[in-house]
Design goal:
The protein is mainly alpha-helical and 185 residues long. The protein contains ten helices and no strands. The relative contact order is 0.14.
């Protein structure tokens, strides 16, 4: 296949993320949870904000976050309750398969982003990983605000996993806010 065809095919594959639901929320009673694409967009936005506050590169952190769940086009979103029964997918291996036909800078860039995110060794990767957890916390608060009562385990999990000072401070405030606080001025 030509490089243009490979990029187009991968672009179509990425569109699947708009249809893959964040399945763990079904356990809390959410009938129509957000998609992986919706989660990834806000996670990338939050990663950029966290990185700016932490003195890291916002664009790089956002780039890492936008790719962090892209493998779920192949695996679906596996809730944590599946872990005792299924081997955790290897994001780097899946990304290598997804991008095998992307020779050159595009494929290299995606593979490097996923590897950096998984290693969690750079400030940008730590911000991206915190953004993933912080986005889940925000989603839990939003679901709580519309009457979904069984969200505390998601909030607790997010709080426990945050590593940057900015993410911890934001999370502590967010759990006390209404999800409509943004319009209160």
């Amino acid at each position: 296949m030509s490089q243009a065809r490979e990029l187009a095919a991968f672009g179509f594959e990425l569109g699947i993320l708009k249809r893959v639901r964040r399945t763990g929320w079904w356990h809390a009673g959410v009938r129509d949870p957000e998609s992986v694409a919706e989660h990834s967009l806000r996670a990338a936005q939050l990663a950029g904000l966290l990185a700016a506050e932490e003195g890291a590169d916002p664009a790089r952190a956002a780039y890492l976050a936008i790719w962090h769940d892209s493998q779920e086009t192949r695996t679906g979103d596996l809730p944590h309750t599946a872990r005792p029964y299924l081997k955790k997918p290897d994001p780097e291996r899946i990304t290598a398969d997804q991008t095998a036909g992307l020779l050159g800078p595009a494929g290299d860039s995606v593979r490097a982003a996923v590897a950096e995110y998984e290693a969690a060794a750079t400030p940008e990767a730590r911000c991206a990983r915190d953004a993933d957890k912080l986005e889940m916390l925000f989603q839990a608060v939003e679901y709580r605000d519309i009457g979904v009562r069984q969200v505390q385990e998601w909030i607790d999990s997010a709080l426990k996993g945050l590593t940057t000072g900015t993410a911890r401070r934001v999370a502590e405030v967010a759990v006390e806010l209404s999800s409509l606080a943004w319009r209160d001025g």
